[in-house]
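BUG: 3D viewer hangs when loading the predicted structure for this chain

Environment: internal workstation, default settings.
Expected: structure renders.
Actual: progress bar stalls at 90%.

Input used:
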Amino acid sequence: MSANGLHNETHIPLAFDAGSHSIRFGFCNNSSPNSDIPSVVGGMLDGTESVGHTDRIKQCSTYYVNINSLCVPREGMELINIMDKGLIQDWDAFENLMNYAYSKCLFTDPKLHPVVFTESPLNTNKNREKLMELLFEKYNVPAMMICKNAAAAAFSCGIETGIVVDSGATHTTAIPVYEGYVITGAIVSSPMGGDFILKKCEKHFYENNIDVIPHYLIANKQRVKANETPIWSRKNTLPKVTNSWHNYMCKSVLEDFKHTVLEVTEFQYNDSLLSNLPTCHYEFPNGYNQEFGSERFKIPEFFFNPSNEGGNLTALSEVVHLCAAMCSDTITDELYANIIVTGGNSLIKGFPRRLHTEIASNLRNTSRVKLTAPINSSNRRFGAWIGGSLLATTAKFNHLWFRSSDYHENGTDEINHNYRFI
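Structure tokens produced before the viewer hung:
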């Protein structure tokens, strides 16, 4: 089966890249995803108790997808995260998101397009089979391909052997890739991700009496000088929203602060030196504003020096070293010469440069360290999606396509038993 043959039978392939923070999807002939929407959906509940989760209500009768719908305050709307540590957990919510993707974003019939899905290197056979059943049974896709998101990110940079450092919302993982295939036994992960940094931001605001008031609560505000008490009024016509929705709105403020203000220094944090650097002004939704100085460097420093505040977390440079040490000595030099940085946290200013410095300074042998972080922020953030779209349109990987006829003849066994994925 040739790649051209498959594409002549159908239409342009679609690529889906699902992460804990957002899900990216689009046509494979584009340079970036058509859409990047939250992996959280809003569910209006019918009041029945969940079988699998005794701590929350299940059986949603209506789902709300994408940021425009999620940001509307609705009484009784609970927010449900489809993903957990990179794995699909809530399949009902995921199915509703897929319906939205095809009908409201891609505006196409799923049976016309082959689909490539990226997956976590730690994905399970059960999850992979369930995805296959959904795509072939409900959406009637003509063919599908599965690829590891780390391998796809490396492929997007033209690299087949290296270490992919993926720093996302819930964790940061060092994943070794050898000739396009992930070495699963040498994957090293740390719980330090974007959510971890948001908690550090929240703690800093609490200790400095800075209120995080989400946009939806504010009716109007007055302009005040830096560090002055904000003058604002609260909306009084709001429905009774759930805690999960309110917390999500607060989290969006923290995320904006993180990407606007935080920065990583090239070398270890030094308060006396950093206090002399230019500050960064930031205004919160309620009008409170101030100049942020050395604290904007101190918060993300935790990625590289977690021991400064106690605990047993491992610095990201050590995570990379552990990953390399678990691989064969014969490929160690090649791994260090091809370190690829991807994920949302890599967009924090100075993050890739500092990671390179830390890895090189801690290296105890003569390996040459080369770190690749695409200058284009879209390429860095959407690396796995871009790589997946390239895989879907490259004839070399045509043997990885799994046709609808294969599924209906052999079921889900072949995709796992014969490893028709990378």
